[in-house]
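Single Protein Entry

Contents — chain, fold
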Amino acid sequence: MADRGTASDRATVSRAGHPYASGHRGIDIRAAAGDEVRSPADGIVHFAGIVVDRPVLSIDQGGGVLSSYEPVVTSLQEGDVVRRGQVIGELLPSHCTSGACLHFGVRIHGEYVSPLLFLGGQPRAVLLPP
């Protein structure tokens, strides 16, 4: 993915709280449609396909960690091995008002956690009222 500043500059939490509530679970990282999306760690493709109306890619990163990315179009298939830094797909236009953003979600043993914990040790984020 193209460098667009620090993780804290790029990431916004749409719905914080622990555990994550139903709906939007993760963060949106500002990016441009067409940007390459790269794997943050070694893993095995757990899922690559359409969920509702968006292409989603999920990677089992071992130790119970499952990361997911959307809307990402990919040629990868379930069971494919990926390496840290490998291009895993291309970002499509999305629900963000800027036209495109990468939705990044993380589950540990099935429970959603803040992806910010995986981006440089950011403490738990709290969504402030408008």
Remarks:
- The CA atoms of residues 39 and 85 lie 5 Å apart.
- Residues 1-18 have pLDDT under 50 and may be disordered.
- DSSP finds one helix and eleven strands in the chain.
- The first helix runs from residue 7 to 10.
